[in-house]
Input
Amino acid sequence: MEKLSYDINKGVNRPVEFRGLKAQYIYYLAIGLAVLLIAFSVMYIAGMPVYLCLPIVLLAGSGLFMATYHYSHKYGEHGLMKAIAHKQVPTSIISRSAAVFGRLNNKTKGGKK
Output
């Protein structure tokens, strides 16, 4: 009788990583490269010389790679989303009237007055 052997997947619950890029940054890079491909084709079809299109796309592509790797290393898997969410939190809440606070004191715990 043959002895069966099973491989164990040790990457369960780990973020997807490809050459140092973590999680959503892989998608950002893929979308950016697709946009650069479309931009190159639009410039080429519009009649711009290839000698001008190619450096523009290469510079933009290298900037895309550097920015994506920078954000991936700086913020990690979820840090960029947390940083963006933190910027949207207001620093203070301004109330022009004290009536809001007066209504809070009139309510009781059961929801009845």
